[in-house]
Amino acid sequence: MAEMLRIVIVGGGIVGLATAYQLAKVRPASRIIVLEKENEVAAHQTGRNSGVIHSGIYYKPGSAKALTCRRGREALMGFCRDQGIAYDLCGKVIVAVDDSELAGLFGLARRAQENGIEAELLTRGGLRRREPYIEGRQALYIKDAGIVDYRLVSQKLAEVSCADIRLGVKVLAVESRDGASLVRTDATEFAADVVINCAGLHSDRVYRRSGGDPQVSVVPFKGEYYVLTASAEHFCQGLVYPVPDPNFPFLGVHLTPMIGGGVEAGPNAVLAWGREAYGRFEVNGSDLWETLTYPGFWRLAARHWKAGAEEMWRSLSKRAFVVALQRLCPEIREHHLKPAPSGIRAQAVRRDGALEDDFLIERHGRCLHVLNAPSPAATASLAIGQHIAEMIQ
Known about the structure:
Strand content: 25-35%
Distance between the termini: 12 Å
């Protein structure tokens, strides 16, 4: 029997909840507490993403993203089947609009093969047969990609994990005391043998509150979405993505059917004026000051100023957003788009301006800190949780 541990998980997003679920399976005698500062689980990144089940095609072979995405998607779909949660492997096309994008498309085809992903190159005619309203020179079809409601998955994880879920509890500090950790919150204190930081947008802050000095800071990027009107939903049958810029951390404006109905268009990616500043003109002054005084942000901006300027212009101009979509789907017009809620991605950036590309989990004392878990973290969440459970073992 494994020794009984008092385990405190900070953060009630899908990674924190999947970790609680996996820990409960290997340590059923341990007491597991999840602390979430909001009054519901999955309130931020998890509940505001586009709901894609990723195939793993974009990630460097052998990386944590590549390995956990493939394992995680199988575990995710198994969990959904067991719990009666709907998902749909609707498939995905990555489209090279013109000849300049063919090299990138063929590179993705090679990466698919290296990562063990079944992918099919489509001619223009093959693309039109699969997606009649999508225009491109060639495309890559990945049947393993799909859609699900990650908020619903998170709620079910919270329900079946056997963890003690405490909502509306904000962590203020983590202190070492008498061979254990004391987690101080705005409500009470919790003694813990192990603390797992899955705080997402605030993960670097929780690290610092535990006395550590992470070599990264979270820079928040807002993903701005529209939804297609009902009359335009037939423009895509499955997921439709452009060939991404390999030097930019985002995948470009794309079309995403949603499991509950409707089609999202986006996201545009711009600097958020606060880690939870979702509104178009919403500002958190202290968050914004923290970002603007971080040297890594300015070094990042200097490297990607051109792509960043294009994203900002699409944020300001609906017409520019439509033009970006029309590269994929020429039939789309401005009146086909309605504003939709935004999401914010927690992107870890190093002091030299380098983006942390892979998942990043670090030990500090009795704490494990998940410092970088952007997409495909939701797809990979159960595999990430299993990995953390193994680290504790």
